[in-house]
Design brief:
This protein is an alpha/beta fold and about 280 residues long. The protein has a domain of about 100 residues: Immunoglobulin-like (Sandwich). The chain is about 25% helix and about 20% strand. Strands 1, 4, 7 and 8 form a 4-stranded mixed sheet that branches. Strands 3-2-5-6 form a 4-stranded antiparallel sheet, with no helix packed on it. α3 packs antiparallel against α4.
Length: about 280
């Protein structure tokens, strides 16, 4: 009886163990039936970093390129043909006899103090004036601010005219920016209007630009013809001498072999076949 009871207990205990073994066997079989997957390892390469100084340089270059592409203005053509640094002089002229076209080649001499005969110029300029007769940014570099100077203006068919000014440290407007009137009639450039100039105009009377006897200087009013109007301007100004005095010298007693002089020629008379002498001060 005890033997039977022992066998019965053994059977009862062996049932859970058998079930466990069976379940474990099934689990191992299902795992073996599934495909094996290889595990992959992702390698990460650290991003190289620059030294702080190089990083700053790179950032600044990038910022410079960005700013230049966004904010840099398109270059514009400048209306000013020349730029002067330091103190400058602005001037405006009005040539007698002309209404619109004031264009001329203008001599500008700057001297210290008031005008005198045969002046010593500190600065000299030769300016091509436009039809407006205005010119700006004439450099006065080297002169002293607050000092009194005088500008002498002379064009090819006009006598010299002076205009005093106190130099500004920036820009000085000659004659308070009002036009300076230049008297016409000096056709032989001796700074005097006399019968010699009238004689030159008479020889060109009635001529135009296509004429053989054309003289552009004698066309004082710039109407394209030398006529009675030009002669009347000279007649009105006969005897007038430009500021700084006459620029013609007396006839020398001895001439070079390249020219013959006649004692009957007046001082400052127009060029003729026998020649003449004229003195012009150094600018």
């Amino acid at each position: 009886m005890r033997l039977i009871l022992g066998i019965y207990v053994l059977l009862i205990l062996s049932i859970p163990a058998g079930a466990y073994l069976v379940s474990q066997n099934q689990t191992s079989k299902s795992s073996a039936s599934q495909p094996k997957t290889e595990s992959t390892t992702v390698k990460t390469t650290p991003k190289p970093t620059l030294e702080p100084s190089k990083e700053l340089l790179k950032a600044s270059q990038k910022n410079l390129i960005s700013n230049s592409s966004e904010t840099s203005p398109t270059p514009q053509a400048s209306a000013t043909t020349a730029t002067s640094f330091g103190p400058t002089l602005n001037l405006k002229i009005s040539i007698e006899g002309r209404t619109n076209d004031q264009s001329t080649r203008l001599f500008v001499g700057i001297m210290e103090g008031m005008v005198v005969s045969n002046p010593k110029f500190l600065l000299t300029f030769s300016v091509n004036l436009p039809s407006s007769g205005e010119y700006s940014n004439l450099s006065l570099a080297g002169l002293t601010s607050g000092t009194k100077y005088t500008a002498i203006l002379k064009s090819s068919a006009q006598i010299a005219t002076s205009s005093a000014f106190i130099m500004s440290p920036a820009a000085t407007n000659l004659n308070n920016n009002s036009p300076i009137n230049l008297l016409s009639g000096d056709l032989n450039d001796d700074n005097t209007i006399n019968s010699s100039d009238y004689s030159i105009a008479q020889k060109a009377l009635g001529s135009t630009a296509t004429s053989a006897n054309w003289n552009a200087n004698a066309d004082l009013n710039k109407d394209g013809t030398v006529n009675i109007f030009d002669l009347s301007i000279i007649t009105k100004n006969i005897g007038k001498i430009g500021d700084s005095g006459s620029w013609a010298s007396s006839l020398p007693k001895v001439a070079s072999s390249s020219a013959s002089l006649s004692g009957s020629l007046p001082v400052g008379s127009p060029p003729q076949e026998d020649g003449y002498w004229i003195w012009i001060p150094k600018y």
